[in-house]
């Protein structure tokens, strides 16, 4: 089953993150705002990976005040898995 997630970020340049979760994998990641090259890189590297792996890789990455777009992505994934 495919689930589309929209996550409003806090404290980073990207205003929201959208992605699909399908068959235990993350697809079609899109950051709205943020540093263009960085968020495109994150999106491409995330495509087809398990959310648990992405959480492990992205959580805790610091850009500003112990927060970053990758960290927000990890929080979005954690929230999605809790539902």
Automatic annotation (TrEMBL):
It holds the Pfam family TSCPD. Its EC number is 1.17.4.1. It catalyses: a 2'-deoxyribonucleoside 5'-diphosphate + [thioredoxin]-disulfide + H2O = a ribonucleoside 5'-diphosphate + [thioredoxin]-dithiol. Keywords: DNA synthesis, Nucleotide-binding. Coiled coil: none annotated. Signal peptide: none annotated. Residues 7-80 form the TSCPD domain. Belongs to the ribonucleoside diphosphate reductase class-2 family. This is ribonucleoside-diphosphate reductase. The lineage of its organism: Bacteria, Bacillati, Bacillota, Clostridia, Lachnospirales.
